[in-house]
Amino acid sequence: MTDPVIQIDDLRVRAGWRTILSVDRLSIPAGQVVTILGPNGAGKSTLLKCCLGFHRGLTGEVRLLGREVRRLGSAGLSRLRRRVGYVPQVLAAHSEMPLTLREVVSIGRCGLAGLLRPLGRGDWLIVDEWIERLGLTELAGSAYSDLSGGEQRKALIARAMVQQPEILVLDEPTANLDLFWREQIVAVLEELFHQIRLTVVLVCHELEVIPPCCRRVVLLEAGCISADGPVEEVLTNGQIARLYGEGLAVVHSGDRHAVIPSGRDPR
Amino acid sequence: MIDLTYWAPVMVGGAVAGASTGMLGVYIIGMRIPFLGVCVSHAALAGAVFGSLAGLTGPMLLVPALVGAVATAMLLGMLEPETTHININVLMGLLFTLSMGLAFLGIGLFPRYGISDNDVRNLLWGSLIFCRWNHVALMSAVAGVQVVFVVLFYKEMRAIMFSRLHASAAGVHVTFVWTIFLILTAAVLTVNFQTVGGLMIYSLMANPAAAAFLLVKGHGRALAVAMLLGATSGFGGFLIAAVTDLSTGAIIVIFSSVLVAVAAIVNYWRRRGASR
After folding, report:
1. How far A232 CA lies from chain B's nearest CA (Å)?
2. Pick from A262, A239, A215, A213: nearest CA to A28
3. How many CB pairs under 8 A join A and B?
4. Which of B3, B60, B123, B195 stands the most exposed, by the fewest C-beta atoms within 10 Å?
5. Domain holding B183: CATH number?
6. A236-252, pLDDT tens digit by residue?
7. Can you give the pLDDT at residue A217?
8. Per the structure, how many domains does chain B have?
């Protein structure tokens, strides 16, 4: 039995007088693809930030790759984060950004190369390899700000992958993307899992984003885990009704899942 | 005919200030925090005002000015938006108004202690035409430190310019590099502030970087073009002012703005050509 890559015990996060996250226990072993699902404000992104040491005001124990994140200083956290490919929700794109896609992807190698050391030939080879693997070669020299939302999201996944991470953590990777790009991102995650058996933690609130390789879903509701288990067992009409309200039905089609309206026709 | 014995340090000083602030502008505009220049330079002014009250005069005012600027820069570095829940631009607005409040409070006390406000006035508006070789040497030395910093932390600054969150996620020592950058920003702005003044320093920081972003893509290219355009603004603006016998500072500001307009037109035609 391998050590869990993420181990949480008695985690509590407060915002003022309100407890916004309360997780008694969560363990994610290596090699699993886990989806953390829940409505807006359920605490999904906060949970990820706690795991990565971005959230300071917490109590309890959070272990990432065997290290207790609360005990680490900023240098220790930086070293730990180099082993994790974290793709935040924010695309960081604005027209004043002069960087090219290749330069953005190379950011993933900056921490690993170390301070005062320029990126070497080996680093750039890894950068170009992942740009190619994600089908972005033709756009490598383009300005990142000129790319579409889907292309930017892929670039950020490439940025995380050039870190050669032990775990990939994605926070709503398909936010604001159309169906084409959503399926592209799902396909990328599926490929990554099958090619390198990467541990993936995915946060989303749409069932359609859950890739076929995902076998475990954690439901987060008002900061607490309300269900944790195999996809078909957790994603039931009852659970979805409790999370999002009545009038919705879960559809399982092979290894993919979706929610459709099932209420009475309003006409 | 221009008397080079007198005007050479003015021309070189304008070019060095333009190149130095242009380089800084790439990061400040790239991070969308243009207010940083105004905030830090006015903190320098507040420092100089209290230096005057403490009896310092002339070049010695640079010391309290630097203390004010560095203290503000470090405060900005320590107050993380995630902890304070205040956007960095709002935070800079607060610190700017506080600096101005302190500066005017101090200036209001000058008559009470019989202190002349000439030195502080020069600091606020700058005096490029009185720039001498010793000023140029100081500006060049700080610009040199700035170049060394960018060379040493080139990849980290690229990551931080993209996004501090993404840089942290990639394991970059963001707090360390960001704090050094802010201190260096304070030093560059303070040293250039006494020569080129508040308004010109802002235009020399923002305009060359904005023009560079319109003309080229890529970190290194943007830095090179912004430095070149900054130096061109300082040097070219001076020449135009000398020929037309108009105010040097004002012409440099207008000239650097014209360069942005030209860059915007070039960018427009280039995009139009590409879309055909």
Report:
1. 33
2. A215
3. 115
4. B3
5. 1.10.3470.10
6. 998 888 888 888 888 88
7. 95
8. 1
